[in-house]
Structures
1.
Amino acid sequence: MNVHISGELAPEIEDSPVPYVLLKGEFSPPVVEASNRAFRELLGVDSTPSGQTFNDLKITLRRQDKRTGNIETWGPQASRRGSGGGSAVSTRHIPSPAEALWRHGEEVRSHQVLRGEVWTADLVHSEGSWGIVQAVIAPLATSPGASQRWVVQFLPLTGFDEAFGYAAPAAERALDALSQISELLSAESQTSPLAEISRILEATFPVDWVGFFLEGKGLEYSETIRPPARPRHRGDYRSRDVDGSGAVDPVLQVLVGKRIDPVLLPCGFDAEESTRTRAFMDHLDDVWDVHGFTPRGPLIIQAILGRSGVLGAIVMACPETNELGEPFEVPDLGTESLKVLSAVSRRIGTTLDNARLYKHEHELAEALQQSMLPTQVDVAGLDVWTYYAPSNEHARVGGDWYDILYVDEQTVGVVVGDVVGHDLEAAAAMGQLRSITRSYAFDRVSASKVIERVDRLVDGLDIPRQASMVYGRLRESKSRGTWQLEYARAGHLPPILVRDGEAILLDDAGGGLIGFLPRPRSSATIRLRPGDVVLFYTDGLIERRDRSMQAGVKELQEFAQTVPQCAADQWGELLLRALADAPEDDVALVVVRIPVRDELSVQGMDLARSYRATFPGDPSSVARARHVIMRLCDEWDKPHTTFAELVMSELAANAVLHGYGQFALRVYDLGEDLRIEVEDQNPIGPIRMDGHGDRYGGYGVKIVDRLANWGWSPKGAGKVVWAHVPVTQERGAPEVR
């Protein structure tokens, strides 16, 4: 649409679905000079009512003065003197061109929203029906001595009506965009919210491309909300432009928080070498190459502020010129768009801050939990395997626990428990219960007495979470080789005894949850024979949303009856593969097996060897995982370990850096190869990078590429990365760059 409108409307205005009318003359009142088809259809007339006024057409323009509350009507300015003393109705003139020059709003398809005064218009259709719409009135600049002219645009009150193709006013569209963005940021299931927000802003703002860059070692492109590192401050940077004007290194000014308003960078800004701006522009070029985008005009950079510093930036690639053909500037985004941009940056900053606090809380809970859980144990005279993993859906923090206690030379205690919840409070309650149970178990009393004493103490401590547990006390007989199991349960699922291919529920000695109405408890005793297997577990192993708990226990029994005689660790692996591949809750599992005198004569021991463990998301875990691989290769008689060590180091390092907390390790003996699996909670797969001064990483993937066949797949809320590494013969030494 052209600013200079002649007596005849331009073709694009004539064909627009938005009603337009051109008025001419002073307030005496002005008359209709031209109108488009949509306006004529609005009134139900066949031709432009040239020479008629709005009064003739039964169109009344009115609005309420926000200051006085009076209802104003549009009419001749002179009539304001005759409005009558004390009248609640007055008239108001449309501002002259000197008061408010008309500029176009953002383009919506083939029509636009004017910027001018907004009135409410009462209309009467030629057939007698009555309606209300909005009228946006903008004065047109005229030559000296010429009559005043106005252009009037009619819009529905709702601001947007898809049935008629009307364009929503900028404020309405901005509020709608902000509402969508807020919903995206609050949706836990959204894996790439920043990518979706970019698309919303591109559709709302008069820009060509929008991207989000989060602070790491410089600004790094991101489509996901990831917990940021500590916000950087001015003292973290070394540059001569930190306290300067920003002309040398404007991106640095954004990073240190000196420029929090939108910053405009001209197209092709030639930043000096060794500046943050040069490094960022190079990174931006790489991102645009991936997206297949070519910029036309300047960049606008808006800082994303957190509670204590800058967490990133919103970057917008703008067109070369605005709608008037002038060089694009920040104000050309529009007042409403700038408000939305500021609000979006604040909300993303708050979301990033919350993500960092959430990560910190769960790292604390995870560290607390890991410090309380025993590692894989060796028990003289018993074959024991233990496992624990919090649910993927609950940030790797839970209230389940297990414990193996050496009460004396002939007595071993086994505890499995479950505290309700998946947060720091649940982990703390779990720690209290574990310590309490340990202290009473070493008193060498019966299983029922242990739980009774735990009951009484927990009742006095007022622990705010419900909890269940089962305590088993194993005593070796004097003849050796046989054991007696005494157990008691407090609201917990019954252990399962597997003997001669039959799975038996040990469902005696039941009772209520821990700490509720302390009462006498009972114990049950059973003698175990060589080859017997006892399973202690929490509900996460069998609980599913689409079936009852009883059905889950039955499935566990049926599967246990199909497992051949094998070692406890192979029992555990088979159970986890069959029942806990995608658990919906925390899983704690203890497998206790009474060894057979001549293990080598037992059939079924040739199952594939495997190992499973979990590690905290801490740098020290990389070395621990590497040592695990070295030990396994030694135990499994694998002569060549170099490649396996390197691959393990890279996969573990990636899990620590990008995996959101604890990660799980699984190793399988495939004969000539080892299969190494690392599972973490970041759903984004490994990314290859070429390396750059303003970012790091990507090289580990190249190393794994050279040393192994590998891949990855989504799993639960995260992913699993796997690699097959040769360990029986060395290949040619790979060239790693």
2.
Amino acid sequence: MRGNNIVKVLFGFMLTAALVIGCSDSEEASQSNDLNENESTEEQENNENGESGDKLFDEVTELSMFNRNHPSWPYDEDQYIWDWLTEKTNVELDMMAVEGSNYTEQLNLTIASGDMPDIYWALDYNIFNEYGQDGAFIDLMEYEELMPNMFQLLEDDPTILQNAMAADGGLYMAPSYNDGASGRRGYLHREDIFEEHNLDTPDTWEEMYEVSKELQEIYPGSYPFIFRSDFAHFHMITPQFDMPGSEFYLDPETEQWTFAPVKDEYKVMVEWLNTFYEEGLIPPDWLSINQEAWQEYIMSEESFMTVDYNGTMLTFNPTMQEENPDFSMKFMPPPAWFEGAPQHNFNADLVERGMAVSSLSDNIEEALTYIDWFYTDEAIEFVTLGKEGVTHEIVDGEVEMLYDTQADFNIETGVGNNGTFLVLDDFQNLHGFAIPELEESLKVIEEYDAPQVLTQPILNSAESNETSVLRESISTRYQEQIGRFIIGERSLDEWDEYVEEINDLGLQDLLNTYQQSYDRLQ
């Protein structure tokens, strides 16, 4: 039975990993007519006649788009979202959807060919900034009059611009923002287990250590705290120790580039993880725990606290409650590194994606006007919820979804697919899909977001080429040694020697380059 649960939870996790970012299936296309039956006859006639109503453009405007066809949310021309966007804007998209594995290769080919679509669904600031500086994409900083909504967002939150800006001060991607809100990372715990044994949720790592010891006494052989993907999930733990979820970042107080794994705060985190390892409070195989093994620990009541996507409870709870109605995975405030310190989770609002416009486009103004629309309140609500009366209703000021599950919503509509948004509203606007435990967490989890800081240096092509190998060398070395510290193969008494070893690899030279690039822009 447990094997079946693993399969169900694993499948559910694959769906929840995208939470808002939906997927589609061409087999569902036949339902399009049913969904659109709610449109009025007058609206349908207007669409057929090309009449605009309150559309973005008065006349039908054709634009081409380079898009990524991702396996988890594949592009399908029959998805309803594309017709709905046309109804809203009068823009008809000629889509070039490339397979995710071939994205970079196809991007390079379109640029080299000179036959470039008008708009690109852009991934990775570094790639598009490099091509933008070479002239392939327009600098959006020169088009403020056409993009008032985007520039208002950048003024309201300068961190968005800082992370997206190129080394020459240009902005070559209209940045996506807040679409990570629904996939917030944080701490989760088995509330039913805590309540059964009258255990308090910990506010500090000291308290998490103490409650882990208690849990281990109650459940001999258990590993009360667990995380998966070895170092890949350290970005969820470092914010509790007054560091962002990145190895390199710009310290907001000193405005100096910093490498977290040599800081004293990082050492404190490693000391705690070493203690948890030595006392058997985390699994001995923490370096190799994959998703399935992590799920097994939790479902078999061997682990009771974890740090992961907040939406994880959406897949665990319904499945496990079929056998154990009391099973309750719930949000837990992040433990601070000492009493009185801020309790911070990783802030996932900033992501590296957006839309770019080809410098060869004959429709630059139209493309920019279309892109800027995605920053309006109307667009944000629409690309988050879909079509009122079809996907949802507003009842007493609250959103009520007209789908039983979020998976049905995503599959049938394509809402949230690549190329359909730039800003998504918080997952609270989709709370109609949330189980009570998740909805409760959504009311408070934002309170624990760590401050956003600059985590990507703004390098020119030469600087990027010069530093890439050095950065990889430093990252590889630090992970090797941090792993040894945690499992006790290396004494923490040698921390200073470790820091010196990292410095000897050229860390300061790397930080100096990052600092020079930052100071140049200032």
3.
Amino acid sequence: MIYDVIVVGGGVAGLMAAIEAKTDTNRVAIITKGNIFKSNSAMASGGINAVLDPEDKSALESHIEDTFKSSKGLGDRKNITYMCKRSSEIISKLVSYGVPFQRDEKGNIEQRPFGGAGINRTCYVGDKTGSAITQSLIKKAKELGIKFLVNTYVMNIIKDSNRVCGVISLRRLDSTVLVYPAKSVVLAGGGYAGIYRGNSTNAQDYTGDLLAVALRAGLTLTDMEFVQFHPTGIAKTNYLVTEAARGEGGYLINSEGERFVNELDTRDKIAKAILEQQNKGQKVYLDLRHIGLEKIQKKLPSLYTVAFNQVGIDISKELLEIKPVAHYTMGGVLCDMTQTKIEGLYVCGEMSANKIHGANRLGGNSLLEGTVFGELAGQKALEFSKKHEFSTIDYNLVIKDILNVDKIFAGETSKNFNAIRVSLGNSMFKYVGILRTKESLVKAFDYIKYLRNQSYSLHCINKERRNNVELISILELRNALEVSEAVILAAKKRKESRGAHHRSDYEETKEKYTKHILIKEIKKGFFKLELEEKDLLNKIRELIINKH
């Protein structure tokens, strides 16, 4: 089947893009690696930032300033301003799609505090905001007649010269390689925190597949060293404990019952403080006992249920042990307001680098950024598809992927790919985690290089092609290793501490590094890194805007 617009990814960014791209007459499809309800967006529980009154200039400026301040000099104020100004319209659109935001006695949308915020601006649906938004968008997409191609794994994009032609995908059902031609394509495949398997809120298959796809297509990645570690994951299960738990008054205490950090500080500072406590031999707990059962069940119902079901803790009476976990990734595909350097190819959501979050994302901005730039990407993809016809597809590229799949099935292996994934996750968290040094990054780089070589000797033990989980796992592992190497190299090049990136051997923030690190894979296994240099016009523009 051919489509006018194909969107890869079923989170809020992808769903918004597909909805905006759909008309009464065109064909739009969403490709998802798993089922339609599985995405990191659905796990984003705390809320979505917005200034609900677009005429409130003071509140808008506060949101813009808080976002830029959190980016540690690497946000683009022009793009940030666009996002913040769109927030009221986005909330109105989501309400029209059926999102049941919490409301006060007068019927106004309630807003709660989040870390790093100057004022209360986070709209929410209990502690399941992301899930509520995702479900409403799925319902809207189905009403519009958007096609969902589920359990379909995108292996590569196809381009003709410098224009996108479609995507090459693998159907999980029977391991068949398929081609989906399209006039325009939107990539919205999420982030890469899953490379920290065992130490992440992300599912193990969130390995940055589409970032590896982008590298192979010749696109540039940026800000890959900036990985946000959420301060509060349930210690035994890695389950995300929403920032709303602290926003509603929860305390962080150590084994001696002492509070040691401002619970509403930015995530990087809190995560670092918790790690320092753990390195002293202290356990760290979330204390909600003073809040009371009634408020917890009203404001944090999902957390109450999950804590009891997963670890047997009644958070209204008992302490919940927590730890920092890899949660969100600021790095992604370099783009200009969703437009990549490939014509007709757009990116949005966590896998994009629209220069909003910079070195550290402000809590509550992920769902906003995903919906705002998902909307924009969908509009641009629609416009492009209206002006262009389908391009010629080079099926030699498709044959290459078919042969790759056949090779994975054909050989024999004695290695355990699952063990390699676990080892990768532990190594990344230990050496490329909250605290980093040149020595730790060199260790990580050497080990990942070794694993990359090993990954090409992996083969399916089960030769049955129907619903073969091993095949996808091997392809995901290869992509995860490619992305991991890019993260390590960028972290090694940034010889400073900035935002979520903390170098123990370079504690200071340096003016010379108020730049983005750009990464390209010039050939398989060889990366080129450079600090972004702006032309004179852009330097003048940024000087004026960023000093506004």
4.
Amino acid sequence: MSQPDPGERGAVLPRRGGASSPADPPVTADQARLVARLLDGLDQVPDAAWRVAVDAAGIGAFDWDLVDGRLRWDDRLLELFGLDHRTFAGTIEAFSACVHPEDRDRVSAALARAVDECGEYEAEYRVVLPTGEERWITARGRALPGPDGGAVRLLGAAHDSTSVRGEESRVARVLESMPTAFYQLDRQWRFSYLNAEAERLLGRRREELVGGSVWELFPATVGTAFEEHYRRAVRSGEPVAFEAYYPAPLDGWYEIRGWPSPDGLAVYFVDVSARRRAQSDVDRATARAGLVASVTEALTDTLDITEAVQRLPRLVTPVMADWCIITLLREPAPSSARTRRGVTVEGAPEVDVDPGWRENLRDAGYWHHDPALRRAVDDYATTRLTALADSAPLARAVAEQRPVLHRTDATEALLAALAPGPAYDAIQVLRPRSGAFVPLRARGHVVGLLSAFRGPERGAFGEDDVTVLTDIGNRAGIAIDNARMFGRQRELAETLQRSMLTEPPQPDDLQVAVRYAPAAHSAQVGGDWYDAFVQDDGAMVVVIGDVVGHDVDAAAAMGQLRSLLRGIAAHTGDGPAVVLAGVDRVVEALAVDTMATALVARFEEIPEDRRAGVTRLRWSNAGHLDPVVVAPDGTVSVLAPSERHTLIGVVPDQERTDDVVDLPRGSTVLFYTDGLVERRGEALDRGIDRLVRELTGLVADGLPLDEVCDGLLERLVPEGAEDDVALLAVHLGPRTDPATGPSGA
């Protein structure tokens, strides 16, 4: 007999052994045991125990004979459907009529599949009772084969799942209404459920996702933190929590919590992109504020313009740019009426550019945060000015005196403005995506430009970036302008200082060398001085001195003391002690409010000294450092006085005395100020020992006097010295006799 079409019959329903009509034979014990196995997996259940369990669980049984089409239900199943043996027709069509219209097709398809495959049947559906009440039924069954292998019978059981379904519905309603996205993955990593918020965040409807693999539907999770944490949770049985980024089309950051269970993995997640952006904005603002502060500190810490422009690119990268170049204007350009507000962006109309704009520019500093690309930046920065056309962004920034911004086409704009050559080739290597060209302003004029570039891996420059770069540019411009003013003031001060420190005379038998080194960190004239002149009797007088203080007042006092001392010595022809005592009295008389150290020395000879080949050195020391003597054999020693006297301007009527020593021809005497030997935090004796040691080495090398003086300054005066240095050296050379020529050591 052919089997009835399941689609025509509708759906399968249960029946249970017990009271029955003669037309409806009861379900057999074997059939009942089969139903029990279907429901709870028991292989052998005693009949009495089975009935007790079934009654307690409210389970009803059904038996659908696929040969004659009869559908038999037991009393419990009839009760579940609100029917009895009189009101139930015993056909598949009668069952289908009880199923809720929205569930009918789904249940019919499940029955047809079980019959066609001679396999298991499972369904959950709503039924409409005669009273109109709805009830949820969960049914399971199995098709039994006949002699030919085809299904001839379908046995099963069903129970009321309304209460369970109600709990599930409440849970589902909670999941659907909560603002947190949720989805469930089964043991095969397939979506089994997701709520409305998950649909919204994932951008896909649940019909598209349920039953699909998370790895296939969202391939960007593979090999990332998503897969790593999901698999670890399932493997370990421990919950996980993490944040991760998913690229486009989601393009967002998510905070994720996963709880493993026997059914798979439950995942709760929220979109934290806004929070991450806000935090990123805060971090970026903090970094930029720190950058501005660092620029201010670094640039105000130096008055060396070269050092300033070399520091700036290293500060700007990589916080604001991947690489940048600092360009200086040789002659600052005052702001003019053509200067416009705002920012010139890509595509803006071109402006007229002065053809001579290149001549006023010098690329003075540049840097790339990637060491591998620094050579390319060097090639570009050292060759670009001569290769750039008048349409170049840099030329527009110079002409308009306002920032020029190329957000996304920097490479194209630069290549279009470059002639073939090293600069063009360098841009092909660097490939900047975005570029900003910002003037460096100070006191109403432009002193330079900052060219900043970002590669394709970073976001393009925006208006806020230009604001920060402009702030940096203004601070840098002031620092550069300060350095330039300092340079001019220092040059002026040094010129003034040197104008007061005249060249010494050079007698035939003496060689005099002088040096003056101004302090590195002061633009004002110092108080150190030297002097040398010849008195009427032919004796050479040398002076070394240091006025207390390092300002214009000290320089003025130095000029006064130098003139007083020179005038008194030249007029009286007296020795050093008498000259210094005269200066003391004049300083008091003229109310010269200053103090100074000074050492006056007189190189003199009498006939006996000439015959002995020596020169007499007479000196008096007013609180100054002791001179150093180099003997003809290279021995270096400090020439200490027998009595030490105070500074000029301290005790007006003090008695001063001379010390005298005979020096053999070939000796050298060195006079110096404290800037040569003093160091902060170090005893003066150590500095003098260092001087003796270095002087000994220079003399041993056989260097001439001028080179000895240069060597001392180079070795003993540190870079960035805080004090100026005056140095005077006298070498007793061979005596010249008109009759016999040079003689002596």
